[in-house]
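Put briefly, the fold is written as integer tokens. The lines below illustrate.
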Amino acid sequence: MEEFQHSYRRLCKESGAEPQETVLQQLQELPRGRLDLATQSLTVETCRALGKLLQKEALLTELILSDCMLSEEGATLLLQGLCANTVVRFLDLKGNNLQAAGAEALGQLLRQNKSIQSLTLEWNNLGPWEDAFAAFCGALAGNGALRQLDLRNNQISHKGAEELALALTRNAHLQQLDLRWNSIGLLGGRALVNCLPRNRTLWRLELAGNNVPGDILRAVEQAMDHNQERQTTSRENRARTHVLSKEVQHLQEEKSRQFLDLMETIDKQRKEMARSSRASAACVGQLQEALNERHSIINALKAKLQMAEAALALSEQKAQGLGELLAMAEQEQRSLAQRQAKERRLEQQEAAERESKLLRDLSAANEKHLLLRNQVGGCGARAPGQGLGLKPNWGDRLPAPFLPLTWAGGTHDSSPGRE
């Protein structure tokens, strides 16, 4: 607040004027962003300073300038300052005798300002200046911020009402318009009634004290009732839409949170998968190395196996050769054994034949020996007394088969090899 006062003093000093104490007092208080200068007589220098302050001031939301008897120049300076203001929502210019210049300045304000929602212009003199008021109405047609407009007691004629009707057909934001105590008349009332079917946002239109017939007033009232019902429905729909929007926003936030949680979970899973992949890659590398080592061992074993198989094949060949040799040796051995057996049988047969022959010879010799013995015994009996020198009888001492035969004059050889 002190900064606002300081700025006001500085601007007044720059213009060579003294600051007004009443204005300083109001600037010091500023309850809830409301500057009330009602019934204060404001000089042109004060209006110029306030206009410059209002271009940048971000604290004021309500500006009350009713019954200040502003001059055309002062009002223009204030309104020019408000053109660039984006904070003021409520502007009261009641009872300031605004005329053509004021209407033009108000038109410029409505074309440039995008924040003022309520404009009170009661007890001014805008209606008689048809061109300026037409410019004001043209600016009103393109304004998208204003919701409430008070034009009571402004000497608005049926032509001014026609300009307002034309503006209302193009304005889709104004909700309340107060035209009481003007000079609209029958023609102006008809023009306003005819524009209402094309305006669905205006739900309050006051026409009392304008010499408007009752049927037109009833038609206006009926149209306002329809628009009010429409506005009520629209507000309910907006409320529902707002609730639904909040629910949708809540759902979106919930989905966003779930999505973020999901993304966080996915990131964790990705990190875990990457870690597992690295571990798996390391394990696969180790397994690959072990597999390569096993392959090397297997290849070495295969080489050894091939060598062993070659050696085995060679051994089998040798064994086959040895087997053949063994078979030949066995065959020869069997042949030899057969020959030997045959020879042995022949020898046994020959030995048996010789033995048989020897036995026959021996038997014949024994018989012959017995015969000779018997003969010798007879000869001894015939000549017992012969003084022959006889040899000792060895026959008594020898076995019978081996007794030698001794004959006088010779000896018989009984060897087995002789016949």
Q: What stands out?
A: Residues 1-87 form one domain. The first strand starts at residue 34 and ends at 36.
